[in-house]
Amino acid sequence: MTARERFDDAYYRRHYQGPDRVHSASQVGRLAAGVAGMAAWLGVEVGSVLEVGAGPGHWRAWFRRHRPSVRYVSTDVSPWACRRWGHARRDISAWRPRTPFDLVVCQGVLQYLDDAAAARAIGNLEAACMGLLYLEAVTRHDLDEVVDAERTDTDIHAREGEWYRDRLAPHFAQVGAGLWAARSAGIPLYELEGAPVHSRLRRQSSAARAGSSAARLGRTGLQES
Ligand SMILES: C[S@@+](CC[C@H](N)C(=O)[O-])C[C@H]1O[C@@H](n2cnc3c(N)ncnc32)[C@H](O)[C@@H]1O
Q: Which residues are paired to 136 by β-bridges?
């Protein structure tokens, strides 16, 4: 089935309207507020956001309302969603932006891609992100243990969490709660804030931090805004 056939009017009605929807605009608004708050805490000034697979556009609605000066680019592969919600039509497995963004959001997308396409998409997310990535992708464990199968689309490529971690770890430090910090940004993380760090990656992060303004400011020097 092509993206055009799969992500149509009926798909969004089933998953985004009515009592069995996966999440509402206000739930995503709380998530967006949390991510924006964490970005501020970590010293990432969010002036630009790329959203991948934006669907009904709940993240964009929050940013338009609460951060109207942010440059926001929302994309989706579905022609129907792009027409309905005004996103740029992009397939994240085959496209990366020319210039990177402070925050990249990719919620509920990668599980629809087969292994090869998902690996290419992760490479494109890495190229697109110079600050923080918010990533949610349903894994095999989630299908078995976490999701409500009545409300969740289970016709997906369910991979192990390790599959994602192996591909993300060279470029991102896992902050937690879906947030990943681009290693190139040199965002200083306290040891217990994130996932355990392999010593080789720890050395890479220290080198990136040495050249970043975040390291010079230090976490105790974050400014009020
Ligand atoms: C479960 S919905 C998530 C929508 C939104 N991110 C949210 O969480 O509310 C999955 C979305 O991913 C989009 N999508 C699927 N494959 C994609 C791809 N290769 N590139 C970009 N978007 C894709 C679909 O069109 C659909 O809008």
A: 107
